[in-house]
Request: fold
Amino acid sequence: MIKKALALIVLVLLTSGCAQTAYWTMTDDVNRVVKSTSFQMSVPEGWVRTTKPVTWERIEIDGEPQTILLESMAVTRDGTGIHAITVTRHYPDTSFPTIKRKSVANMLPPEVADLYVSELRKRSGLERLKVLSNKPAKVNGKPAFRLVMQYKNEDGLRIRIVSYGFVDKTGFYTINYRAPYLYYYKRDYKKFTSVVRSFKQLKSADDPPPEIPAWAKLFT
Amino acid sequence: MRNVFYFMLLSLFVGGCATTGGVTSFSNAEDTGNLHEKERRLWHEAAGFDDTIARSDQLYENKQATVYLQNVMDRLYPEFKGKIRVYIYDSTELNAFALPNGSVYFNLGLLARIQNEAQLAAVMAHEAAHFIEKHSFKQRVSTKNSAAFALSGIPFASLAAASSISGFSRDLEREADAKGYERLVKAGYNPREAHKVFQHLADEVDALGLEEPYFFSSHPALVERINEFKHLSSNYKGKGRIGSKSYNRVISPLRLEALHKDIGQDRYKSVILVMEDGKMRRYYPSASYYYLGEAYSRRDEKGDNSKALKAYRTAVKKSPKFAPAYMRLGMHYMKTGSKKKARYYFKKYLSLAPKDARDRGYVEHYLKSL
Reply:
């Protein structure tokens, strides 16, 4: 009961403008390079991006809600409900949390890609998420996978996802682009590839993982 | 969400349809043209569910298998030809369901586990009986099953679909057993196969600790189904059709596809269970050993790495034209520093895999780097 009350208070504070910074920031020509804790990238001008990296996420594992560490940033032009570019870093112990697999630095990209697809299917419930292609790529000079995936939503609209990903000793990184194939996908695909090209890991990627904020645990 | 379902259900009761009196079953295809207004609404909902399934890529497209299933249904219920339509639902869950408008869906996963045509016919006759006896309509007007709608866990199902998929009350299931059994015998199938399909699935549910598939509603209902079919067939002296060859000729490629999907959804326990069971494994193509290797790799317990390698080697030996196993062996030897062996397996993969094979790019890339 106390936990629920505290969670409610936090939620009210956040939504009533007591948070220190706005969740979204418009990108202009002077703030196109976005720095997260362990990576940075260039964001298309005129798009909005998350002001600060998200550091945790709440997921369901075997029907039980859990809070895990995750570093992520999102970029969108028309709203995340329509399309988005997300960059994530999972720490090694929870790289594939729903299927309960860790990542290790010597995993080959096709092995990582297979686990990632399984994780996506299980976590999102998209049992019929199709893999259209899975090819070798490089991100920040590291061997990576490039997955093109697709599913149809209940209205029959084709949603396409392109994911680049790699593992190293600091965790599992992904750069994802999700958009309806109709109109949006092609319109912004080039911008996505420029985000991928600009991705760089920072020295702080080697720092030990942070603690999950105590208040974030209240939600589980 | 649950509240919405309860509210909708409540609305139906308040709307004055809380009686099952006067609901008569269909006797042939022509009867289906003469529906009660409330029943017509139920059909409309079911048709909407059919549409959603079709447009969101949830149908498994295999013409040969679909035609085969439809022929078995038409053999069971010739008087409903054209009205009961059979589809393959693209899911590895062990399930089958009939909608109130005569659409019957068999999950790919269930088809993979069924061993012969008689077992298929047993499930099919049971499901079609739900439609012919109008169980969705009867259940809708019954107050007993209100929770089924709310707890079905189906994200976008209409009420009609929810009741069909999540199972019916015990009385209605028993009626479907009895009517289905009659039809099974009448169509010339061996009814002694019927309980075997339920028994095998019950074993799988127990071994994997699965949540109950909707098809079974609950574990007691599943045990009851096994006992009911055993009881019904105990006095059967005939030599009815089993149809093992015809079933497996059509379904064998689907089994490989089901294993592929199981691995893709991290259901490795299920793959190991099936492939370690000698009785079940013989129904699977020899290339299935590749998926056993994948399953051991996913499980990643002590000794699983060598088990996976053994399974890949068995796949290569028993199914030498199946390319993916060569890639896995190549990757293993590349990681362990045996470049010569790695090159051999990668080249073998490239010679066998289709030009547009998903992993071809990786193998070409690795071969260049060796």
